[in-house]
Amino acid sequence: MGNPATAADPALRVPEPIELRWAFSVSIFFEERVLFATRTGTRGYVPVVRGDVWGPRLTGRVVPRSGADWAADGRINAHYMLQASDDSMIYMRNTGRMFRLDGKTAPPDDPTWEPSAPRYFRVTPEFDAPVGPHEWLSRTVFVGRGQRMPDPDRTIFDYFEVL
Prior knowledge:
The protein is mainly beta. It has one helix and ten strands, in the order E-E-E-E-E-E-E-E-H-E-E.
């Protein structure tokens, strides 16, 4: 690992690229989007109705009404409960940035922001899983990407383990 020729001068060191492996995806369905004013601007939240979890490392569902996406200034802070196919309950916190398809950030107080407009996301989820077969979620660093999908209103997230 690394280039031994640069050991004498760490400034010349070129880091190895990080590898990622797809772990699972989550499709989260919504019924409503709520905007409200605060002293710092407009915020929004979107309650979770239901969802599905699938992939090589985790399968199951999003527990209905177990959380919501919260948005402000192009940031998202979401909390949900996942239920694995073996009935294990897993808490998930998903934080990151929301972007319009043209690449600009998409805060709710942006005059061009439409609650159901196409968006994509870059996120870093964290999990709190019980001891047992899903414990690896609590010890793993993940990155993710998401895409808002219309009709029905949902977002699909793909999560990747950092190896």
